[in-house]
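Annex B. Sample input.
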Amino acid sequence: MDTPGPALAVLLALALDRAFGEPPARWHPVVAMGRYLGFMGPRIAPLAQATPPRPARAFIGGALAWCLGALLVLAVAGPVVWGVAGLPWWVQALVLGALLKPLLAWRMLRSEVAAVEAALGESLAAGRERLRWLVSRDVGALDASQVRESAIESLAENLNDSVVAPLFWFVVAGLPGAALYRFANTADAMWGYRGERQGRDWTWAGKWAARADDVLSWLPARITAVLLVPLRLWAPLVVQAGHTPSPNSGWPMAAMALALGVRLRKPGVYSLNAEGRAPEAADTARAVRLASRGVGALAVLSALWAALVWSRTA
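Annex B, continued. Sample output.
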C-alpha cells in the first residue's frame, strides 16, 4: 500500500455510509451472501429430530459449504482489485471506497438502535418488536430495561462486526479481506448456533462457521474495545470480557458497559458490569455517541494514514 488510495477508500466508504446508508437489497453483497447461506443451510444441517445424529457428516458438509462460499466471494472481489491495479491511485480509491461501503453498516446500526429506544417510548410491546430487528434471541419476556440492555449490547457487538472488523481486514488484505470477513460473520450469524434453530440441528453443521468467525474477529474485537473504553478501565475490561461464552463479543460489550457505568445481561448466560445500574433511556443515546466517536477515530486514523503515505510518495 504505497499510495494513499486505500486510506482514502476507507474515508470514502465511511462518507458514503453516512450520506446514503445501505444500497438496495438487489445490489447488496451481504444480502447475496445471505441468500447463498440460506440456500445451503438446509442442505448441511440435519433435521433436529433426525436419528441417529451424524456429527462428522454435518461438520464436513458445513465446512465444505463455507469454503465454497468463501471461494465465490474471493472470486468476485479478487478480479476487481486486479482490474483497478493499473489505474491512477485516486481512481482506485473511488472504486474501492464505493465497493467497500456495502461491507460496513454504521448508519443502519445507529438508526436501528435509536429506533428501539423510540419504540420503547411508545410502549414495551413496540420496543420488543423493534428489538427483533437487531437480535435473534426471544424478546417476548423482556422488560423495558432488558430491551434497552439488548439494544446497547447489539450496538457494541455490531460496531465490531459491521464497522471495525471489515475495515481492519480491508487494511490487512484489501477488498477481498473485507468481503471474506463479512461472509464469515454472516455465516456465523446464520449457521453458528449450538443446538436447534428453525427445526434443524446446527451443533456440528455450524461449528466451522462459528470458529472461522472467532478467528477473524479476535483482534478487531479488542480494537473495538480500545475505541470504546478509557485505558484506566482496561484491567476490569479484561475480567468482564471473560464472562461471556464468546471469545470476542464480550470485549466490545464489556467495554460499553464499563464506559457507560451500566450492567448488560443475557439472563442465564452472562452479566457484564453486574455492579452497574440498569440502563436508562439517556444511556442508549450515550452509547450511540460513544460508538460514533469510535467510528470518528477510525476516520481520523485513516486520514493520518493517507497523509503519511502521501508525504512519503510526494
